[in-house]
Design a protein that fits this description.
The complex is a heterodimer. The radius of gyration of chain A is 18 Å and the shape is globular. The longest helix of chain A has 18 residues. In chain A, the strands form 3 sheets. In chain A, strands 6-7-8-3-9-10 form a 6-stranded mixed beta sheet, with helices on both faces. In chain A, strands 2-1-4-5 form a 4-stranded antiparallel beta sheet, covered by helices on one side. In chain A, a hairpin with a 2-residue loop joins strand 11 and strand 12. By secondary structure, chain A is α/β, with parallel strands linked by helices. The relative contact order of chain A is 0.17. Chain A has 10 helices and 12 strands. The two termini of chain B are 29 Å apart. Chain B is globular. The chains are: A alpha/beta, B mainly alpha. Chains A and B meet through helix 2, strand 6 and helix 6 of A and helix 9 and helix 10 of B.
Chain lengths: 257, 358
C-alpha cells in the first residue's frame, strides 16, 4: 500500500475545473515532485492532499485513510504542509513558531507536554535553529525563515509532508540547503514528500519521481531522468529545452527561440 | 516562497519577544494597579471616608476586626460604591478581553467588541425602550433587556448575512457587520428624530455609557454571562495564537478554525451584549487595552487575554472614579473619560516602543 494514494481526483472551483481525474501513488519514504507550467493545478493538488480543498470527485488517502473523512487534528498528525506563502506573525519567537507544529498533539486547552517540548528542541537542533530560538520571527532572513517553516512542519512528526514551491525567492545556496535538508529527512527518517517546484533542474536532481501536470491533468509520470528528457515536458512549457549532464546530474536549460 | 505581511507591527516594546521575567513583572504591576483601582473605587467620592476606615470595614465583612463606619457611611460604601466598582471590574475586563479576542479571530488590529453590530443593536434596543415605541416600555426595566436583545439580534443577523461565518472569510463577516450596524443605527436615528427632546437627551446619555445606575442586582444579572464568556475567551488564547498564521495554515496545524471562530465570536458578543445592556456603550476600552497589553507583553494571546482581564478591569474602575469625582456632584460620561485617559496612555506607550526598538 502506498503512503499517499490519489484516486481519480477532480477539483472544481465554481464552473472551472482545476484538476481532472488525477491518479497518483507516492510510496513511503520517497520524494515525488509535481512540475508543470503556471496554472497547471500543482498548488490545487497539494492543497487537496493537505486537506485544505475538497475533492469534487475521487479520493485522497494517506496510509489507507481518506483525508476527507479525517478531522483537522487527525489530518495534521498525518500530513504537514509547507505553504507557498507562509504567514510569519510578528512578535512570535522562533521557538513558539516551531512549537505550533505540536498543536495536534497537545490540543488547544492543554500546555505542551515534555514530549512536545523535546520534539521542538530536536527539530530546532536538526535544522540548526537553536541560536535563533528566542528571536522574533520577523528578524530572520529569507533562508532562516524557510528553515523555520520546514522546522514547524517537521515538528508535526507526520509521515507525509507536502510542500508548495518551497524554494521560491531563495538564493541558489539557500535553495540547495533547503532541498538537502528535506532529502536528509527522506533518507534518514523515511519521510514521504510530495512537492511542487518550478526549477526543473532541482526538481530532477532531488525527486525520485516527477509528475508532469498540465491543464489539471497528468501528462507524464516517471523517473526524473526520463521526464526531464521527454518531449512532453518541452511541449507543456511551449519552448525548447536542452538537458545536459554535469557531474552525473541532469541540468535543464531553456533555449531561446 | 514569499512571506505574508505581519498584522500588528513588531508588537511589543522589545525587539525580541518579551521574556517570562518581563511578563511576570507586568503581571505583578497590573495586579497592584487593579488593587489600587478597587481601593480607589471604594474610598474616593464626594463623601470623604478615610482609606483605613474603609479597608477596616471591608475586613470586618470578612470576619476580621470591627468596622468604625457609621451606618450611613457603610451604606454609601456597600450600596453605591461597591456595586459600581464591581460592575466596573466586570465591564472593563469583558470589553478588554472581547476586544482582544476579536482582534485575534479577525486578525485585525482595528477590531473591537462592537465590530459585528453589538453597539448598533444595543443602541437601537435601548432607544426603542427609552422613546417608548408602542407604549408600555417603561424604563429602566426595558432598556437593559431590549439593549441585550438588540445586540444579540444584530450579531445574529451579521452572522447570517456574512455566510454564517463558517464558509465565508472573516472580511465578509466584517463587511456584514458594517452593513448591519448602518441599518440599525439609521433606524435608531429615525426613532430619535420622531421622539421628544427629553428622550433624545436620555438616549445620548445611555449611548455615552455610565456606571451610575449600578446595583447589586445588575451585578448579579451580568455576572454569569461575563464569568462564562471570560473563561471561554481566555481559554481560546492558545487557539488564537495558532490562528495568527492564517486560516489555511491553522487548519493544516490541526485547528478546527470554523468551530473556534464560532465559539469565540459567540462568547465575546454575548459577554459584551450583557455588559452593554447594563452600562451602555463604553468605547475605547476594547480596542486600547489589548493593544497596551500587547505592547507590554508581546503578541501571544495566552498572555494578552488573561492580563487584559486585570488591566481592563483596573482601567475602567480608574476611569469611572475620575468620571464621578472630577465634576462632582455631576458626572462626566464614562465613554468620554475612557477616551481622554486611554488615548494619551496609548500614545506614550507607542512612543516608548518606538524609542526602545530603534
Amino acid at each position: 500500500m502506498s503512503t499517499v494514494e490519489i484516486d481519480n481526483l477532480s477539483v472544481r472551483a465554481g464552473s472551472a475545473t482545476l484538476i481532472s481525474d488525477v491518479s497518483l501513488n507516492v510510496e513511503a519514504g520517497t520524494w515525488c515532485t509535481i512540475i508543470g507550467p503556471n496554472g497547471a493545478g500543482k498548488t490545487t493538488l497539494v492543497e487537496t492532499v493537505a486537506g485544505l480543498r475538497r475533492a469534487s470527485k475521487g479520493t485522497v488517502s494517506i496510509s489507507g485513510e481518506l483525508v476527507g473523512s479525517m478531522n483537522e487534528r487527525e489530518r495534521a498528525k498525518r500530513v504537514a504542509l509547507v505553504p507557498q506563502h507562509p504567514t510569519v506573525p510578528s512578535g512570535m519567537s522562533v521557538r513558539d513558531y516551531v512549537a505550533l507544529g505540536r498543536t495536534p498533539y497537545h490540543g488547544l486547552l492543554r500546555a505542551p507536554s515534555a514530549v512536545d517540548r523535546r520534539a521542538v528542541d530536536d527539530v530546532l537542533t536538526r535544522l540548526s535553529l537553536d541560536e535563533f530560538s528566542r528571536r522574533d520571527v520577523i528578524t530572520l532572513s529569507g533562508g532562516e525563515r524557510q528553515r523555520m517553516v520546514l522546522a514547524r512542519a517537521l515538528a508535526q512528526s507526520t509521515m507525509v509532508m507536502v510542500l508548495d514551491e518551497p524554494i521560491t525567492g531563495l538564493d541558489l545556496r539557500h535553495q540547495m540547503t533547503m532541498l538537502e535538508l528535506l532529502q536528509k529527512e527522506v533518507h534518514e527518517c523515511g519521510l514521504t514528500v510530495l512537492a511542487t517546484l518550478h526549477d526543473l533542474t532541482l526538481a530532477g536532481q532531488f525527486a525520485d519521481r516527477l509528475v508532469l501536470l498540465n491543464h489539471g491533468e497528468v501528462v507524464l509520470d516517471g523517473p526524473s531522468s526520463e521526464v526531464v528528457r521527454s518531449e512532453e515536458l518541452a511541449a507543456c512549457y511551449e519552448m525548447k529545452l536542452r538537458v545536459v549532464e554535469v557531474d552525473g546530474a541532469d541540468v535543464v536549460i531553456p533555449v531561446r527561440h | 516562497m514569499s512571506w505574508a505581511t505581519p498584522h500588528f507591527g513588531t508588537g511589543s516594546l522589545t525587539a525580541n519577544p518579551p521574556t517570562g521575567r518581563r511578563v511576570a513583572l507586568v503581571a505583578v504591576a497590573t495586579l497592584i494597579a487593579l488593587a489600587a483601582a478597587v481601593v480607589g473605587g471604594l474610598v474616593i467620592g464626594p463623601t470623604s471616608i478615610g482609606t483605613t476606615r474603609v479597608v477596616g470595614d471591608v475586613a470586618s465583612h470578612l470576619g476580621l476586626g470591627h468596622s468604625t463606619l457609621t451606618p450611613l457611611q457603610s451604606s454609601i460604601i456597600w450600596q453605591f460604591r461597591a456595586p459600581r466598582m464591581v460592575l466596573g471590574l466586570l465591564a472593563g475586563s469583558m470589553l478588554a478581553v472581547a476586544g482582544g479576542t476579536y482582534q485575534g479571530v479577525f486578525r485585525n488590529p482595528l477590531a473591537d467588541p462592537y465590530l459585528l453590530g453589538v453597539a448598533a443593536g444595543a443602541g437601537l434596543g435601548a432607544t426603542i425602550a427609552i422613546v417608548d415605541v408602542g407604549g408600555g416600555l417603561t424604563t429602566p426595566y426595558w432598556t437593559p433587556l431590549l439593549a441585550f436583545v438588540g445586540a444579540m439580534v444584530a450579531v445574529a443577523v451579521t452572522w447570517v448575512i456574512g455566510g454564517r461565518g463558517l464558509r465565508s472569510n472573516t472580511s465578509t463577516l466584517i463587511l456584514a457587520g458594517v452593513a448591519v450596524a448602518s441599518l440599525f443605527t439609521s433606524t435608531q436615528t429615525f426613532l430619535q428624530q420622531q421622539s421628544s427632546t427629553n428622550s433624545i437627551a436620555r438616549v445620548y446619555i445611555w449611548l455615552l455609557g455610565s456606571l451610575a445606575s449600578a446595583s447589586w442586582s445588575s451585578v448579579l444579572l451580568v455576572l454569569p454571562y461575563v464569568a462564562i464568556c471570560l473563561l471561554i475567551c481566555v481559554a481560546a488564547g492558545r487557539a488564537l495564537d495558532v490562528m495568527s498564521v492564517g486560516e489555511d495554515e491553522s487548519r493544516s496545524l490541526g485547528l478546527p478554525v470554523q468551530r473556534v471562530r464560532f465559539v469565540v465570536i459567540v462568547a465575546s458578543s454575548l459577554g459584551t451584549a450583557a455588559i452593554v445592556s447594563a452600562v451602555g456603550l463604553i468605547g475605547f476600552v476594547g480596542i486600547i487595552v489589548p493593544h497596551i497589553v500587547r505592547l507590554l507583553v508581546g503578541t501571544s494571546y495566552r498572555r494578552i487575554l488573561p492580563l487584559s482581564v486585570a488591566f481592563g478591569a483596573a482601567f475602567l474602575v480608574f476611569a469611572d472614579t475620575i468620571a464621578r469625582t472630577v465634576l462632582a456632584p455631576s458626572e462626566l460620561p464614562l465613554g468620554v473619560v475612557t477616551a481622554i485617559v486611554g488615548a494619551p496612555v496609548f500614545v506614550i506607550i507607542l512612543s516608548l516602543r518606538r524609542r526602545m526598538v530603534t
